[in-house]
Write a structure and sequence with these properties.
Blueprint lengths: L7 E5 L8 E6 L7 H11 L3 E9 L4 E7 L4 E2 L3 H15 L2 E7 L2 E10 L2 E7 L4 E4 L2 H11 L13 E4 L3 E6 L3 H5 L5 H11 L1 E11 L2 E8 L4 E4 L3 H14 L5 E6 L7 E7 L6 E9 L4
Parallel strand pairs: 2-3, 4-6, 11-12, 13-15
Antiparallel strand pairs: 1-2, 1-17, 3-4, 4-5, 6-7, 7-8, 8-17, 9-10, 10-11, 12-13, 13-14, 15-16, 16-17
Helix pairs in contact: 2-6, 3-5
């Protein structure tokens, strides 16, 4: 039975309850089945809900699974940040270790300028060129053409816990005008094993704008995607582009502005993704 399960609701990569990406959090999910977790995630309706299926508070180590409304995902960045902030509020700041289906994720929580922030270190990232056929099918589903892409950033499939097709828009206007074929893109993404399509526009080497369609999770778009930001760090590192530390602005076109700070943490391409999270008071 799930009627008595306590579900926390936070929004990540913001300090404003009206911004960021909302996430559900279940801190005591050890007795829940897969079907029950999926049903709860669908009931919550956010892009992901995090479930702590095992916990060792003394070691600050936790087993975490992530469910979207229609599927489980191996890793979710914004729900990781939200969960880390919720735990730090209860256990105190310091290091946390999350055992996820993508691998172990170290998270550091700290107070910066009187604000609680969390920084996750991803699994090793990697990036490879996208296949031409899949790229053409994606552009058709988006209603884009190759002329809409920035040739300075080749299309890749980037990994930072999940695979994300990564496409650079040639203009901010192209990025803002997003109206895609949900079912067509979902079927393609399921076939290719992509979690989101990370669409971005380069404002500068230190500042990028992003949008992330997420139809495979039953969600039109993610307001902030930490896993895609981690993968994007690996993408830029592979290509030798951008800066070693940069900001991703996401959610603006949805009315939920989010700020993700990304840096390359290690020679193996692990990315560090930082942000805050706050309780959604009226949830």
């Amino acid at each position: 039975m799930t009627d008595n399960v306590e579900i926390l609701r936070y929004t990540a990569f913001t300090h404003d309850p009206e911004g960021g990406n909302p996430a559900g959090i279940v801190l005591d999910a050890g007795t829940l089945s897969d079907d029950e977790m999926l049903a709860l995630a669908a009931k919550v309706g956010y892009s992901e809900t995090a479930f702590l299926t095992a916990r060792d508070d003394e070691r600050r180590a936790f087993q975490v699974r992530y469910f979207a409304p229609s599927a489980e995902v191996a890793f979710c960045g914004h729900a990781t940040i939200a969960t880390a902030v919720a735990l730090a509020e209860r256990l105190g700041t310091g290091p946390l270790l999350f055992d996820t289906r993508a691998g172990e994720i170290a998270v550091e929580t700290e107070i910066v300028d009187d604000v609680l922030r969390a920084t996750l270190t991803s699994v090793p990232t990697r990036s490879r060129p996208a296949e031409e056929k899949a790229l053409d099918e994606t552009l058709a589903a988006l209603g884009w053409s190759r002329d809409d892409l920035d040739p300075a950033f080749p299309p890749h499939v980037a990994f930072g816990g999940n695979d994300h097709l990564t496409l650079a828009a040639a203009t901010r206007e192209r990025l803002a005008d997003l109206d895609y074929d949900f079912d067509r893109l979902k079927a393609l993404m399921e076939r290719e094993g992509w979690t989101t399509v990370n669409l971005f526009w380069r404002e500068s080497d230190e500042r990028f704008h992003a949008r992330n369609p997420f139809p495979v999770g039953g969600v039109v778009e993610d307001p902030a995607t930490g896993a895609a930001a981690a993968a994007f760090g690996g993408y830029l590192r592979t290509l030798g582009l951008g800066s070693a530390e940069f900001t991703v602005i996401q959610g603006v076109d949805m009315g939920r502005p989010s700020t993700l700070t990304v840096s390359i943490a290690a020679p193996d391409g692990r990315s560090r993704v930082s942000g805050g999270a706050v309780v959604i008071q009226d949830a």
